[in-house]
Each structure stands twice: as structure tokens, then as C-alpha cells.
Amino acid sequence: MRRDGSRYNAYNRGMRQRILLLSAYQADSHAWWTRWLEQRFADIDWRRLTLPGRHFKWRIRGNPLSWIDHIAEASQGVDRVLATSMVDLATLRGLHPALAGIPSDYYFHENQFAYPVGPGQRPSVEPQIVQLYGALAADRLLFNSEWNRGSFLDGVAALLRRMPDAVPAGIVERLAPKTAVVPVPIVPPAPGRVSRDARLILWNHRWEYDKAPDVFADAVIRLAEAGHAFRLALLGPRPHPPPPALSRIVDALGDRVIANGRVPRGEYDALLHRAGVVVSTAIHEFQGLGMLEATAAGAIPLVPDALVYPEQYPAEYRYPAGDADALARRLAGWLGDSARPGAPDVSGWYDTALQPLWRQTLSGPVSAAASSGGGSHPCTGDS
């Protein structure tokens, strides 16, 4: 195998392509993406190594150890490696030199340069270094959004400015030409038989610090105190015991809550079709699959004017990030108001729209991003 992608020519002549997919932190969205790739591109011979999405610090540094007895067999005869950015790709290539000759794509579901530090956590440069070394080792860097790509490159530049000495020149300039934006697709929920409830507000995120649920709690409690009628569907995984924000909402507004907790997929889709408004208060979002799914089902998105959202939703769907009062005012104006906007078009993120881009990405030479000056999903322009 040569790094110039010469096996692509052999594949074009009829050989079945073999890809080794490495996912070192198989969280829900990563697992969905993995299944989608295997199902939509069943003509590819997929070899897969994954690790459960837990023990983050150990996973991001320890995955080469976890796979040390498996990677040689898994990579035998493959044409390409597709590794998520939780994989310590540089170390894997050092421990298994045969990998260094296989074209490798490094897929960023997230980047550690723009991930907020949680309560009780200490900032660490280690996860950032893992991703930087992985990016330098990979032939192509794929991102799920322009925000993800830009914040990664900006973060690398900031890290290099912090280095006390012996700083190499032009690192960002080496990385940028081999980047491309290739989003994770969504499958729009099948049309439901439920009626739209304009006063149903949907939350479908993890109840953790990076989704800022306290801002959501403040907004809906103020909305109720102002006398507005509405209902709540509080979905998404939550830790045990429940976080204070969720407890505050249930204690103050329990009679308005029609759903509370993770629900079966059919019930989840029905709630997406029923909801009038879907809200995000996130301080970390690199793509926001849940918001895209709800919007595809017809719910009106209300999102912070930050992160990935400006490249997905026009200004009328955005409010000042972190401002619970502004969120409450916007919700008050939309509840039951026939003049509120309709759901925007997010069909550019449907799997039917993105499947050709993914086919081109998986089957084309690894130099594709560089030759095109850095790829870009057509829907990632600022609105």
C-alpha cells in the first residue's frame, strides 16, 4: 500500500474495498454513525474495533494499549483506516508500523480544544496533544461541521502560542489543506399521526453541564411565572441522582411535564412530531443531531447564537447564548402565535443528501481534501 492511495485504482477495477474503522469512545452518536456507515455502504468490507464510551481520560490515552493484541489482525489487507479523533492514531502507527503505510482519515465528532471544562475538572493539555499528533499523522482530517474545523485549527494555534520554546513553524498551515467538512447524517423521523402542539416545548439533550440545563430551567420557570401556558417534554439521558436543573423544573412545573426521561424510539419520534418548539442552551455543540432531527420533524428550533448553530439556522431562530431572559422572551412570543416562523429546511443534513459525499469521501483518494483546497458541506455557510 502506498500513501498516494494507489489501492483506490485496484478498488476501481473491481476489488472490494476494505476499511478499518477505529472508534475509541463509542458514545451513542458515534455508535449511530458507525451503524449508518456499515448499513449504507454494505459493499465495503468493514473491519471495526471499538471501545465503550466511558472512562474518558483512560480511553483517549489508553486505546493503543487496549488494541495492542488486536490491531495487527484487524488491519490485515485493509485499504484505508477511518479513525475517530478519540483514537491515539500517532501512537498506534508507532506501535504498529504497518499502519503507517495505510491511508488514514481522522474523523472529528468533537475536538478537545473547544470542549468546555466541567465543574470540578482541571484543564489538561493531554487530550489536545493526542488529537494534534493524530491530525499530524493522518492523511486527511474530516469534521462534522465548519465550527468544529475552525475551532480545532484555532485551538492548535493557541496551544502552540503557549509552548515556552522550540515551537515549530507552520503547523496550522500544514493541517488546514487536508481538512474537509463531512457531517454525520440524520434520518428524518417518519411522518407521524400526532397533531402538532404549538405550546409543547421539547428538550432532547443530555442533562449535563455542557448542555447548560440551568439556563433552560431558568427560562421555563420565568415563562410560567409570567403566566404563559405551555407543556414540557423533558427527554435525554440524565445522571443519577437527577441534576438540580431537572429537579427544579419538575418541582416547579411538574403538572406541565408530559414526558420525563428516555423513551422508546417510536415514542421519541412521536414527540418530535408533536412538539411546537425544540430548545438548546448548549455551551458545547459540534453538530447537534438531536436538534436537527427535531427540526426535520417540524419543531421550531430555538438555539444559542454560537457554536455550530449559525451555520445551521438563520438568525430568527437564534438568541444570545446563555441569556435565560432572552430565551424566555422568545418563547413567550412564539407560544401559540400564528406569526412565529416555520421550521427551517435542514434537508441538507439528511442521509439521502449526504450519502454521495460520504461515498466520495470513502472511495476517493486520501488527497481529495487537499486537492480541493479543503472540502466543505454545502449547507455550512453562515446564515
From TrEMBL:
<dbReference type="Pfam" id="PF13692">
    <property type="entry name" value="Glyco_trans_1_4"/>
</dbReference>
<keyword id="KW-0328">Glycosyltransferase</keyword>
<keyword id="KW-0808">Transferase</keyword>
<feature type="domain" description="tRNA-queuosine alpha-mannosyltransferase N-terminal">
    <location>
        <begin position="18"/>
        <end position="186"/>
    </location>
</feature>
<dbReference type="InterPro" id="IPR051862">
    <property type="entry name" value="GT-like_domain_containing_1"/>
</dbReference>
<dbReference type="GO" id="GO:0016438">
    <property type="term" value="F:tRNA-queuosine(34) beta-mannosyltransferase activity"/>
</dbReference>
<protein>
    <recommendedName>
        <fullName>tRNA-queuosine alpha-mannosyltransferase</fullName>
        <ecNumber>2.4.1.110</ecNumber>
    </recommendedName>
</protein>
<dbReference type="InterPro" id="IPR022701">
    <property type="entry name" value="QTMAN_N"/>
</dbReference>
<dbReference type="Pfam" id="PF12038">
    <property type="entry name" value="QTMAN_N"/>
</dbReference>
<comment type="similarity">
    <text>Belongs to the glycosyltransferase group 1 family. Glycosyltransferase 4 subfamily.</text>
</comment>
